[in-house]
Write a structure and sequence with these properties.
Number of strands: 8
Strand content: 5-15%
Radius of gyration: 20 Å
Structural class: alpha/beta
Length: about 375
């Protein structure tokens, strides 16, 4: 097989698609176009994952998908991991790692040219510590109960129909193309009681394995970093994102939009939790050159309290910095306001992310893949 393979690896709570909702919204199209402009005709593979499973299990799921996609017959492989997906990639490519029997991990690594992380918690995120709290464990327990019981599925089904109806009602008021509309159209109007429905399977995966929660804490990642190493000959790079601290005041037009107020309040909570660096597990201090690159890309100073709302900005550094963008955690994978007309702004961070910024992000990723098509020297 002469066509290069590019694997898109989703993060924590990730999926390939559920209903009409895609994790990497419009990324394939943008990346494919950017690669072709550089003379690279690649096959892009959207990977499935176990949403909250441990990193070794997620890495093994990735390994199996590489094999199923004909990866060992390809001339070259490239990996792009968003959020926890970047850690899955690093583990799979670690020299000498043993995830399964045989030597498939090493064979995959020998064919790999680039490993790119996007908003990945290479040094953990304080948000993971929250999921170890009573409130966080309660949330996961509720998700589990909803997915595994008939009563729970019935409750979600009834709520889905009600939300779909509300989405139609706000259209009559002139509020179209909101996140609520996209949830209703892409998922809720199509959800079924059948436990084989993708939505239930997704929630069931969360119920069965939540191993990544502990591993994504700053304490857990310290152990990960001690065991996981970069593979010689692979070009490692990162896309780094961050947003300014959310302002406290709402505009009048925002106050009459209950959906926006709720999502914005959620983002503020996530941002506040992520802005608390661990006192005993600090993020590595960037070099002066990297600090200037971060500050210039964000438009403000990158400090340990700055994040994309989910992952601290300084925690996202690993390998070469390919691109720095003022964006939240989901902006970079296409979930921003009116992106392509088919997705929603699930994290209204106020970053001002645009289609131009989205395209620039994936142009930078494509440039790194084109550059890394020849094996890097092992210095």
């Amino acid at each position: 097989m002469t066509t290069p393979l590019v694997f898109l690896v989703p993060g924590f709570f990730g999926f390939s698609s559920v209903g009409a909702v895609s994790y990497f919204e419009d990324v394939e199209k943008a990346l494919d176009g950017a690669l072709r402009r550089r003379g690279v005709a690649a096959r892009i593979v959207r990977c499935m994952t176990q949403p909250t499973a441990s990193i070794p299990r997620r890495a093994d799921a990735l390994r199996r998908q590489v094999l199923a996609s004909g990866g060992l017959k390809a001339r070259e492989l490239h990996f792009i991991g968003h959020s926890t997906g970047g850690l899955d990639v690093r583990m799979l490519l670690t020299p000498g790692v043993k995830i399964a029997r045989g030597d498939s991990e090493e064979r995959i690594a020998r064919l790999t040219r680039t490993a790119i992380s996007v908003s990945t918690p290479h040094h953990g995120t304080p948000l993971a510590n929250h999921f170890l709290s009573v409130q966080g464990q309660t949330l996961l327990l509720v998700l589990s109960a909803l997915s595994t019981s008939g009563e729970g599925r019935g409750a979600i089904l009834a709520a889905a129909k009600a939300i779909a109806l509300i989405a139609r009602l706000d259209d009559w008021l002139g509020r179209t193309e909101t996140s609520l509309d996209r949830i209703a159209e892409g998922l809720l109007r199509k959800i079924r009681f059948d436990r084989r429905d993708p939505a239930w399977r997704y929630l069931g995966e969360i119920e069965r394995d939540q191993g990544a929660v502990l591993q994504l804490t700053p304490e857990g990642i310290e152990l990960f970093d001690a065991a996981v190493a970069d593979h010689a000959g692979i070009d490692y790079g990162c896309v780094v994102a961050g947003v300014p601290k959310p302002r406290e005041a709402f505009k009048i037009k925002e106050l009459v939009d209950p959906e926006y107020v709720a999502l914005r309040s959620l983002f503020r909570l996530l941002h506040a939790l992520t802005a608390r660096p661990h006192p005993r597990y600090p993020y590595p201090k960037p070099t002066k050159a990297t600090q200037r690159l971060l500050d210039r890309g964000l438009g403000f100073k990158a400090t340990p309290s700055i994040s994309d709302g989910i992952v601290p900005t300084l925690s996202q550094l690993h390998g070469r910095v390919l691109h720095v963008v003022r964006a939240d955690h989901l902006d970079v994978v296409g979930h921003y306001t009116l992106a392509g007309g088919s997705t929603g702004n699930w994290l209204p961070s106020g970053a001002g992310f645009t289609r131009e910024a989205f395209d620039a992000t994936w142009e930078a990723v494509a440039a790194a893949i084109a550059r890394g098509r020849q094996p890097a020297r092992a210095d």
